[in-house]
Amino acid sequence: MRLREELFVLGFDKAGKPAVHPDSLDIGVAGARLVELVLAGRVAVSGGRLGVVGVEPTGDAGDDNLLAAIRLAAQAPPLAGALNQLREGAGEAVRSVLLTEGVLTKTAQRRLGLVPVTRYPADEGVVRAITVRLWYAAHGRSQPDEPTAALCGLMHAVLLHEHVFVTMPLAGLDQRLREIRGKLSDPVREIVDAVTTLVASAAFAIYR
Fold it and tell me: Residue 30's pLDDT is what?
């Protein structure tokens, strides 16, 4: 699974109910998409702006279009602006992929027995595998690889960590996740920090 898909499935409980506000998860998914391209050596981030490395196709039409847009921009696009654009429909796009792959299942329920709602519970085995990997990293049991460290950072940025580790000891968790974030490469850390800022701004806009 790609980083964006792993973050997305962590954003819901066993019944498929959102664990954080959809706007926050969309921002996180958009950030995960950029992190994937950084880790693949296709996107550079410096001083809050994006650049493209290489011209070879990625094999993903959406990512190729994104790289082309960055490459053809009159000036290096700002990271925050790119995240704001990429967040639109980010979660829905990932949900569509995961439904096709059978990771998510569409179910119809009724809230309070009256209001119809649609939920998308994830394969518990998939979620468990991701969570265990994060648990080992977050509790210092293993040195996380770059994708796992980035996922820890993004999970923390969208405030999912207490949901993900709800059945696990939380003592020192926030500090450990901050330590992992501090060891991320500069480009990945810039993206995670930008996600954190946008999530906070979105929350303020909702409640003001």
Answer: 98
